[in-house]
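Box 4.2: Ligand-aware structure prediction
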Amino acid sequence: MFEKLAICVVVLLLAATQARAETIEDKVQVCAGCHGADGKPVDKTIPTIWGQQAGYLYIQLRDFKRGDRKSDIMQPVASQFERDDMLAIAEYFAQKPWPDLGQPRAPKDVAGKALGASASVGCPACHLDHFQGDGTVPRLAGMGRDYLAKTIADFRTRARGNNPGMSDLMLATPLDDLAALVDYLAGL
Ligand code: HEC
Ligand code: HEC
């Protein structure tokens, strides 16, 4: 009798948790509203997350939740998730293809200036030669132009304060070099 009852209770409990268990697809539905159902962000100041490095995506979600990277939009979104969710969501988006935003290639003189600045600062030491990123270092190639300009400006004012090293680097790089880098990276 007790055994039957215990089994009943277990079955009921499992059914209840299954009804509540959301799949990763359920959890990422909300993201499409801004980051795009096809991976192309709905606004130019919103970053591409399709095809971004998983380690980097995870750190951003963690930092938004902690408030280390301040965003009134992303903080409440990230706060719903625990570490395991964040890791799974990061992996989910990293597997997607990087979208082509159709941004123009930088003209030769701008590209030359950008590459000169990149070589003297040493961006490829971390972001790699084709700016594809790796692990916790983000891909920059083909990222939205307006987002790049905004987040670089935020590093410089430390409004984006989750990586002081990147802020120091951006502050040490002349503004005209950064403008050239933004055009160059967006067009890759
Ligand atoms: C209401 C719009 C909105 C929604 C919904 C939204 N995001 Fe964002 N997301 C943004 C904006 C805007 C930024 C840029 C924040 C900033 O830099 O100030 C951003 C930034 C990010 C970043 C940082 C990317 C980078 O290159 O630094 C990640 C990762 C991210 N969002 C993941 C997600 C995930 C995952 C979801 C769904 C669970 C989601 N976002 C839902 C608007 C949104
Ligand atoms: C010492 C390693 C290192 C060097 C050198 C470096 N970066 Fe970064 N960069 C990083 C890391 C790590 C991050 C991620 C920071 C975080 O977690 O928020 C980052 C983030 C960025 C982002 C934000 C991307 C996004 O999606 O929000 C931009 C833009 C960027 N770097 C541009 C540059 C440029 C341009 C240069 C050269 C002028 C450069 N970086 C040099 C390590 C580096």
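In the box above, the bound molecule is heme C. The chain has two domains: 23-94, 108-186.
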